[in-house]
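Fold this complex.
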Amino acid sequence: MRIDILTVVPELLDSPFSHSIIKRGQDKGLVEIHVHNIRDFSTDKHKRTDDYAFSGGAGMVMTIQPIEAAIKHLKSQREYDEIIYTSPDGEQFSQGIANKLSLKGNLMILCGHYKGVDQRVREHFITREISIGDYVLTGGELAAAVMTDSIVRLIPGVISDETSALTDSFQDNLLSPPVYTRPANYKGWKVPDVLTSGNDRKINEWKEKQAYERTQQLRPDLLNGD
Ligand code: ADE
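Structure:
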């Protein structure tokens, strides 16, 4: 899989993909993540990428020219399954969307900034608009990082224990059961006996019950299919 991210602040994405599991996925050749500076495609003599809104009002708007140039440049090299725009108005990101996107070959993500992009970009180039939640960020870069992280970890082989992505919270509309590690007794705070019993059937039953009870208590909306 390949993910191309277009942004006016590439520095914001320096770190999220350079460590731990996401870095390992890239090192293993399972995913390529490329961050592109939209400014590099600007034909403006000052390399500007934003301008005042025609309607007036506060805030700048990202101009169409450098975005079109960047998208066309990438599209001339390969086909993209989706060209995603990060925006608080988009459909809400979820584990289900991450699952589906992880099966794609090439994704492009355009990060909104300032007041957003010229509407014509959305109409002519964007195939999907996604929000990571009902709150407003200063830009779409962190949203792109969140989406990329959750998509990449689902690619087979990125997480060493393949079953662990399948047992994540939300994969079956249930939160994960609690987890414990050694020591089994820390200052009198004990791990539930069943987990040290060695009885796999009982352990699985306990995990399922815990997952169900935690979901009922903390996120009953998941059980109602909301
Ligand atoms: N840009 C600003 N806020 C955002 C959000 N909540 N989701 C995606 N992109 C955004």
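The longest strand covers residues 82-92.
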